[in-house]
Amino acid sequence: EGQLQRTAGLRPPARSVAVAVGPGGTLPRPGPASPAPPGSALRGSALPGAALPGSTDGSGLVVLPVGRRRVARELLLAPPPLLVLALTAISLAAQHGRLGLALSGGRLLPPAGLGATWSSYLAEWHQVDGGTAAPAPTALAVLGVIGAPFAAIGGPAAAVSLMLLGALPLAGLTAYLATRRVRVSRWGRAACAVAYALSPVLTAAVAQGRLDVVVAVVLLPPVLAGVVAVLRGPPPGARPSSWLSVACATALALAVVSAFAPLVHLVVLVIALAGFVLTAAAPGYAMRRALGLFIVVLLPLGLLLPWPAVVLAHTVVLLHGVGSRVAQVRVGVGQLLTLDPGGPGRLPVVGVLLLAAALLVTVLRRRRAVLPGLALAALGIGVAAVVNHLELPPLSGGTPRPGWTGAPLAVAACGALWTVLAGMARTVEGEPRQPGRGVRATVTGAAAAVVVALAVGVLLRGGAGPLAAGPTPGLDPAVAGELRQAGTAVVDVAADGSVRSAPARLPSFGDDDLAPVGAEPQRLARDITALTTAEPAAARAAVADLGTGGVALLALPDAATAQRVRTAAGPLLADGAPTSDGRPTLRVRLPVGGAVLVEPPLSDDATHGGGPPETPGAKGVTPIPDRPPTIAARVSAGAADRLLVVAGADEPGWFATVNGKPVPVVQAWGHLAAVPVPAPQSDVRVDRSGALRALLLVIEAALLLFTVVAALPGRRRADD
Fold it and tell me: CA torsion angle for 410, 413, 417, 422 (degrees, to 10)?
């Protein structure tokens, strides 16, 4: 029992704890048969077999004084805080040139504000690339959640920037915590966690703005640990209901990973199903094991609704993940075998150290426990080879290109370090032959060399890449307000030649992950190409096509391009207010609105293959300042065969009424939704039904609430 020491009133009394010791005054490692003593501030995993500083009374007990200094020393000098501190220092030293709360570049478009992010996620229709009713990626909801605490300093943009700047310590901490059930010393676990965080996959993903891979790398260790826990069952002495909290927490983390990198989700499901088939259930745990696997496999799909429909319909999302489209080239076989995903931000070849460590431990230990880790590493490299070989066009259009191998190579890195931990772990009963001091010294030195080499690679190359800090570019506030009121869009032409459209703003994160309608991206790219070729007839036709699609503003990369485009288009374009980063803009001088009322004979041309008007003062086109998808207008009496054309691509789901009666939706100018308007005065309404999406979002919210509540650890019993 605890004893109180006299302190003469100089300080609060220290707590002393009686602890059973082994032969020679050593502290045995706590395990199922020897639990750690209650109230002790020391953990056996930190000091296995270490001599105790207390005095023994000859009965196998030793008195350990547990005062404030000892508690502070055990907390501050423990592996977790030192690990986080070291990785934070390395990250800041490598990324000192991009410190800020508004990072963008590479595959990361600037995230929108908190309100705009939630609005985009909840919207049933998006005015992007001609308009689309495709579901927004669930990654926007994740950014909305993590951005809420940072609303005062930038919202999602600040949260994403802090995540990228702190990716190394986050990955190291999650990897360390995920291995808490492995019977390896805390310093050994910390070394593996640091090696994982410094792997070339993570540093390259950060440097290239690949938020999808960063999220996957950070959450992959706890997801894999959760899958293993579901298959093996709770540890001895755990609550009987802990399997449900573990399964739900794993499903929640897996859903977050899948929201950014669905390929990793697929790989984890393969691992879970293979583990379920190849391993036997613990006694009395078969039913809970099956239910836990059911939760891990199916619950993430419900938490992602309705985004899985896009992933199933467009294989490229599975291959490329979430993020803006960028140029991508294949990597060599040697890079795959050295866990090198390619691109800036990583030191070549250094990743081979992780695989070398796994092979060395396998040869030295020769244990069956290393086989799952080796299989996982082989699976990750195999999937990376497939991703590297397949070429598909991006979701938002462009030339076919392979996927980035970083996500599957992160799985391979987990497998390599799993092998190392499994090879060095002690069994429950204790092995008859433990490594000698020479072997332990060799392993310690090799681990230190690997960590130092990886850290040097991060310091040398981690600051490279397109990711940079800077204010988020935006439109002139007055111009943006005018465009919002008119329901019109902006076409952004970047310096690299990529073309995107967005509603009354510059493109933001998630726009490239909205599945477009038909050939709308190709149509937009064709119009911009016609504008930049400086051929007057083609340029005027392109401006007219953009105007009928609701585009009222062009943002161009430089003044030379703007001058060339303006000269080619003539009076159809006029100079506009520059963006906040100084880029020139051009206004479309045609009747442009969220919808337009077209009079005959232009309405006949719209439905019979004719082109849109190409003169600024064209009669017979009246803009309707309303924002799609809901257009409501009272049309005065006029000619018959008039047409109300919505600035949105024609796709299933549009419906219209005239004076409360349903009317058919037709196609105008080959790609826009339109409604015939009769000659008498009429109330015309065009809209889309969002009932199905609303229902799916309600189901998603209900499943999320259940998952969060079920994942919370329950109250411990009094006898625990």
Answer: 80
